[in-house]
Amino acid sequence: MMRLRLLLNTALLGASIAAAGKGLAAQVWVVALDGPVGPASADLVIRAIEDAEAAAAAALVIRMDTPGGLDKSMRDLVKAILAAEVPVVTYVSPDGARAASAGTYIAYASHVAAMAPATNIGSSTPVSLAPGAPQPVPNPPASEGEDAEEEQAEAPPAAAGDAMTKKIVNDAVAYLQSLAELRGRNIEWAEKTVREGANLRASAALERNVIDLVAQDLGDLLNQLDGRTITLNDEARALATADAELVFVEADWRHELLSIITDPSIAYGLLIIGVYGLILEFYNPGMLFPAVTGVICLLLGAYGLQMLPINYAGLALILIGLGMLIAEAVTPTYGVLGVGGVVAFVAGSIMLMDTEVPGYQLPLPIIGGFAIAGAAIAFLVVGSAIRARRQAVATGPESMVGGTGLALQDFTGQGQVRAFGEVWQAQSDRPLAKGAKVRVTAVQGLVLTVEQEE
Predict the structure, then answer these.
(1) Which residues share a beta bridge with 443?
(2) Three-state DSSP state, 76
(3) Which residue among 73, 93, 101, 110 is the active-site one?
(4) Which of 22, 166, 167, 434 is catalytic?
């Protein structure tokens, strides 16, 4: 009996230890980086790194599928990865995903870079900071086997652009090579993908030491990571991820708000609506609603634009154009200020976004819509002013000239007439008979100058 009780207690203790061990299983956090790398997506990943550090996670996996993005957002994210207290693993996934342009830098900066089989990485030639500036001409990307890679290696270097383009390209090459050196990855290919836009499929990237792993899915990735040694803050650390619990980071309200207001079209529209709201309040003091709406929209639009690469000359032209349209509406110049305002507004809107990164351009239909709306308001006021000038005066003494009345008595010189529903003192150079129909020719104070109507 005592032996049976001892065995039972031992079994219960073992079950408790196993349950406790299961409850204390390591965690691997997973955050998605889909679409262009911008302020919102970079902020989400950076906060995920900080939260994973606070939770003492075994690793953070960035599941990435991006065509590239903004240079500033990419560099902010790379800095966060390099300073992270938790191992960061970039996993290009699912099948068909890519780590292009900015995605290549993020993968190179990570402690471990992995890809799903049907994915690709590269095409890291930087987009010029000035729209229309000459670009390095990339050779066709090598993503279809060794033959394509050999052809790309034999291709002549890209044509050199102007001094600014050379500076941008050289800076990008040095930046990516420094990341490659830090993580022990292919330095030569790092230069090639920047200067020539080279691109690799997953198996070729693994073979050429561009990435560390090729994994079918997250489960396969964790199994391959288990026991792998990485360098974290100059210290070797072995990863324990085989039985780790996956914690998926969900987008919160902050991410959604940043995604909305850092959309160039939204930020642009908020700025213009905010300006119009404040102007409406200035012309109609006390309405409050336009002022409140205008201030909120103006602040949100300004906050969104300051996080984007904008051309301040373009922003100044937009504000000048709006000012000229408003001036046309207030003091009509018969189209002079209106036309100039539309031209300045459209030119500034086209110049506003100081980047050619896909997804961060102002669509021409949106620019045209706001321009047409502003011009319509201005020229509608101009048309109303012209029509008003052509109409007869409707108030004041001038509006009484030409009116008719009846003589209330026979008189020559001074007498009385009934006009405009009232009895008036009147004067006439010719004799008037009682009941004669008269016409007003002038008004002097409260005396009407009349003459008999033929």
Answers:
(1) 448
(2) helix
(3) 101
(4) 167
| Contacts within 8 Å (CB) and 24+ apart, 102-105 | 102/37, 102/66, 102/68, 102/69, 102/70, 102/71, 102/73, 102/74, 103/33, 103/37, 103/64, 103/66, 103/67, 103/68, 104/176, 104/193, 105/74, 105/78, 105/175, 105/176, 105/179
Average pLDDT over residues 157-170: 70
**229-232 and 213-214: which strand pairing?**
unpaired
Active site residue 110: no
pLDDT at 14 over 70: no
| pLDDT tens digits for range 231-289 | 998 889 999 998 899 999 998 898 898 889 999 999 999 988 888 888 777 777 777 88
User: At residue 158, does pLDDT exceed 70?
Assistant: no
Report pLDDT for 90: 97
| 397-452, CATH topology level | OB fold (Dihydrolipoamide Acetyltransferase, E2P) (2.40.50)
Mean of pLDDT over the chain = 81
d(C-alpha 119, C-alpha 125), whole Å = 19
pLDDT band at 332 (very low <50, low <70, confident <90, very high): low
Q: Which of 18, 210, 8 is nearest to 123 (CA)?
A: 210
Domain boundaries, the chain: 25-252, 262-308, 312-391, 397-452
Radius of gyration of the chain measured on its C-alpha atoms: 38
Q: Give backbone dihedrals phi and psi of 250, rounded to 5 degrees, phi first.
A: -95, 145
Q: Considering only the top CATH level, what class is 25-252?
A: alpha beta
Contacting residues for 114 by C-beta, under 8 A, at least 6 apart: 89, 90, 91, 92, 211, 212, 213, 214, 215, 221, 224
The residue whose two tokens read 């308001």 is: 377
Amino acid at 286: G
Q: What is the mean pLDDT of residues 95-102?
A: 94
Could you confirm whether 101 is annotated as catalytic? yes
Comparing C-alpha atoms, which of 11, 231, 234, 205 is closest to residue 103? 205
Q: What is the pLDDT of residue 425?
A: 86
Angle, CA of 81, 86 and 92, to the nearest 5°: 55
pLDDT at 454: 73
DSSP state of 101: T
What values do phi and psi take at 47, rounded to 5?
-65, -35
